């Protein structure tokens, strides 16, 4: 995460950047802000900036080996502590059991809340647990910190939602917050500082993260996606929770049912149903430019998901249930021979739409190209 990827909060950013530049790095800090604010994003940007090998005066480089590892939350000196649940499989849970799942959750939505995280367990959370950081976690942290740093100058222990630490953990960690091993800093990220023990709060330097303003929210999504009117509405509705707004906008895209549109198109082109294609083109050309762009970007996404499904692990897929069902049938038609051509043609079409090309002609021509591309045989068998 780069500072520039986070909208608003310029004062906090300045404060964090100056602390690093003046080498006044507090070894235990509390990022406190409401659910859906930039607290985690800021803490991550700060951790990355601290360890960037090539930082500028105001941000991380984003491309050095340290940045790349921080960006994917996989740096060996970034220890993540999160609230977890007891499940059928895991009776004594610690963060490490669920960290892959959390990484997916957070990289999908850096403004996701504790509730969102717990909801992501779905039916696995039969007992309605709210997420806890258990005693075993404290032992784990002690164990990890007894080893030397792998490669970073500043090893970071990030505790997400420390208000979910039970009393045992809190007591076991107090001393560490006060005096961490050399080269280690604690970053705690809370959406409810009131629930933390005063003895903990007093050992931390608090950084208050403000709510996102209307301008921040519009800047985050871009004016094309979010008009002033919509942004106002959503900010009021969610209490300036960017994570929730993300979710609402994503759900809206689902409502538009792009997958139904896309699978219909693929069926028609594969069958070379020219009449059907004409009707489909007619229909799409009546929709606005924004909708057409959305559809084309979606098509690019689905081609990419097909490749992931074919060549990598399906755990990397970012699809919903409907999309996944479609993928299982459609992916054999997308392969190394045609995927690049298809993607290039789709990108070219987006540019065409943006230059006000005639949509009817553009989508008809694109459909004919798709007919051709889908008939290309792959040279090598896979799987
Ligand atoms: Zn860097």
In short:
The chain is built from 17 helices and five strands. With 383 residues, it is an alpha/beta fold. Helix 7 links the parallel strand 3 and strand 4.
Topology (elements, then pairings):
Elements: H1 10-21, E1 28-32, H2 39-51, H3 65-71, E2 78-81, H4 95-108, H5 114-119, H6 135-145, E3 155-160, H7 167-178, E4 184-190, H8 198-201, E5 205-208, H9 214-221, H10 228-238, H11 242-255, H12 258-271, H13 274-286, H14 289-311, H15 321-330, H16 339-354, H17 359-375
Parallel strand pairs: 1-4, 1-5, 2-3, 3-4
Description:
- The chain has 383 residues and is of the alpha/beta class.
- It folds into three domains: 3-208, P-loop containing nucleotide triphosphate hydrolases (Rossmann fold, 3-Layer(aba) Sandwich); 214-255; 258-375.
- It is 54% helix and 7% strand.
- The protein has 17 helices and five strands.
- A five-stranded parallel sheet has the order 2-3-4-1-5, with helices on both faces.
- α7 (167-178) links the parallel β3 (155-160) and β4.
- The longest helix is centred in the last third of the chain and has 23 residues, at 289-311.
- The chain is elongated and about 75 Å long.
- It starts with 9 loop residues before the first helix and ends in an 8-residue tail after the last helix.
- The mean pLDDT is 91.
- The structure holds zinc ion.
- Residues 52-54, 60-61, 64, 66-67 line the site of zinc ion (ZN).
């Amino acid at each position: 995460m780069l500072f520039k990827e986070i909208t608003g909060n310029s004062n906090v950013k300045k404060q964090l950047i100056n602390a690093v530049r003046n080498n006044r790095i507090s070894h235990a800090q509390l990022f406190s802000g409401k659910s859906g604010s930039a607290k985690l994003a800021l803490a991550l940007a700060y951790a990355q900036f601290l360890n960037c090998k090539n930082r500028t005066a105001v941000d991380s480089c984003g491309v050095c080996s340290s940045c790349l590892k921080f960006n994917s939350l996989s740096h060996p000196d970034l220890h993540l502590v999160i609230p977890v649940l007891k499940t059928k499989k895991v009776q004594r849970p610690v963060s490490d059991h669920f960290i892959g799942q959390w990484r997916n959750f957070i990289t999908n939505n850096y403004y996701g809340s504790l509730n969102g995280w717990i909801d992501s367990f779905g039916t696995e959370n039969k007992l309605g647990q709210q997420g806890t950081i258990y005693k075993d976690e404290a032992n784990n942290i002690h164990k990890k910190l007894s080893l030397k740093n792998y490669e970073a100058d500043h090893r970071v222990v990030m505790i997400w939602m420390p208000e979910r630490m039970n009393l045992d953990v809190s007591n076991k960690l107090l001393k560490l917050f006060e005096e961490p091993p050399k080269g280690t800093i604690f970053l705690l990220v809370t959406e409810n500082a009131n629930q933390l023990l005063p003895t903990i709060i007093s050992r931390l330097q608090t950084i208050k993260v403000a709510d996102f303003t209307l301008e921040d929210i519009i800047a985050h999504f871009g004016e094309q996606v979010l008009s002033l009117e919509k942004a106002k509405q959503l900010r009021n509705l969610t209490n300036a929770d960017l994570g929730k707004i993300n979710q609402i906008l994503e759900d809206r895209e689902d409502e538009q049912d792009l997958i139904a549109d896309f699978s219909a198109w693929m069926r028609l082109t594969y069958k070379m149903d020219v009449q059907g294609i004409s009707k489909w083109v007619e229909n799409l050309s009546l929709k606005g430019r924004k909708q057409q762009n959305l559809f084309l970007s979606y098509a690019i996404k689905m081609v990419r998901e097909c490749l992931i499904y074919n060549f990598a692990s399906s755990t990397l897929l970012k699809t919903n249930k409907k999309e996944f069902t479609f993928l299982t049938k459609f992916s054999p038609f997308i392969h190394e021979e045609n995927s690049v051509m298809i993607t290039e043609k789709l990108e070219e079409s987006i540019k065409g739409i943006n230059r006000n090309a005639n949509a009817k002609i553009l989508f008809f021509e694109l459909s004919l190209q798709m007919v051709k591309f889908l008939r290309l045989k792959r040279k090598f068998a896979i799987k």
